[in-house]
Amino acid sequence: MDRRIQKTRQLIMNTFIGLLAEKGFEKITINDIAERANINRGTFYLHYVDKFDLLDKCIETYVELLLNHCADTADTTLNTSAFQSIFEYLEKNFTIYKLLLSNECFGLFSSRLYAVLAQTVTEVIGIKSENNAFLNDVTTHFLTSGFIGVLEWWINNSMPCNVQQITTQLLFLLEPYTKHLVAR
Questions:
Q1: Which of 17, 104, 112, 144 is the most buried (most CB within 10 A)?
Q2: pLDDT tens track, the chain, 184 positions
Q3: Domain 1-48 carries which CATH code?
Q4: Which pTM does this prediction carry?
């Protein structure tokens, strides 16, 4: 992709995030974005259909960044280093993830993150499950819901405990379920 296109899209997205923090999604207009980014409305529409499209691309970008970080630093087992890596990344990028979770923009961020994590958990279960009687769908949704719930609680409550504490507690709670998923 052309660097100018990338820079313009990043400028629009950063402007949108700033406005999201100030006004909330419902009150943002395309004029607000164009004015703040110092671009024409036409330039906005060259890159995005409307503010809902921009929101969707923003959510997609930040879910992808989180997952790319996890893929770069964690293996596919549910272990201390994998969870710690996720929470360290969230801690470093707290502001944007809190914004996306607290605005909830119709629950889109949580839903997208849930879908991607459920797919990852399904792949791990499919590869590493030692007990065929274990219902993979139930396990997938239980583990994904538990993790997303803890992640949302931690972010929405402004990280009431440190990364090590949340990692330790989460692994303690998931241990009865994750022991079935440990690599052979």
A1: 144
A2: 789 999 999 999 999 999 999 998 889 999 999 999 999 999 999 999 999 999 999 999 998 898 887 765 545 555 677 788 889 999 999 999 988 887 656 578 888 889 988 887 777 766 555 555 456 788 888 888 988 999 999 998 999 999 999 999 988 887 776 665 544 3
A3: 1.10.10.60
A4: 0.79
